Amino acid sequence: MTNSVKDEYAQNDTAASDGESGPNDERGSDAAHVEATNATTALRASNISRSFGDVSVFSNLSFGVERGEVFSLVGPNGSGKSTLLEVLAGVRRTSTGSVTVSQREDGVREVGYLPQRPSFRDGFTARDTLDFYARFLDGVGDDEVTETLERVGLSGVADRSVGSLSGGMTRLLGLGQAVLGDPAVLVLDEPGSGLDPAMVERLFGIVGELAQSGSAVVVASHELPAIETYADTVAVLDGGEFVARGTPESLLSQAEADTLPDAFLRLVGAEAGSVTVRADATSREATR
């Protein structure tokens, strides 16, 4: 494999999101402090902040994510979700604070990361792509690649070129590369973006299964009906801070709402501007 191809694949970990994060030139090993432990907390963020020059994206956030938990991050476009996920995934440094990841005893990887816009080399097949990533993970070989293709529902198109895959299949392939090696923490940025409702349901079903297998999942998504179904904890990021955090049921109660989309609009103050949330197969515009 040439260095140019290797570099192209490495760029997946720092793929541009939706304009929330600015130029990404800060990949480094000090983005997340990793230590092995038997504790049930898979990820711990302690007073983390991130700024670009004089612009603060978020400040003094502290939270933990347990093994087997689906922790969902929601917020208006531009609220800093993608930047926060990059910090949690270790592809961007914090300005202050620290992130600690506890390794799984049965895994060989600390963090698996799916950027918002995964891209892969067109000349590779789906299997070639996962084979490529597997080379960088100790003890992950052909059997694990085959198992992962089955796990994300791509075994039937394993030998199809990446360039011929649909958008939904490309997302599933991105999920596949993120779960190779059974990471302690999965960080997923808008995994359902651009997918039809059936594919969104399928993808979040896989996410739920991965959590049940022992991984902690941190997912940012506007697919609020799916979040309401699959998330254990929902954190609403707005104005650089969590304006609400708790179970989906507790957020409904706090906002005095019947559905999570309605609760979201109330919690971020829908009268002050414009936000978009996805409810089932439709998008809803609200003045915020």
From TrEMBL:
It comes from the Archaea. Residues 1-31 are annotated as: Disordered. GO terms for molecular function: ATP binding; ATP hydrolysis activity. Pfam families: ABC_tran (PF00005). PROSITE patterns: ABC_TRANSPORTER_2 (PS50893). Coiled coil: none annotated. Keywords: ATP-binding, Nucleotide-binding, Transport. Gene3D superfamilies: P-loop containing nucleotide triphosphate hydrolases. Belongs to the ABC transporter superfamily. This is ABC transporter ATP-binding protein. The lineage of its organism: Archaea, Methanobacteriati, Methanobacteriota, Stenosarchaea group, Halobacteria.
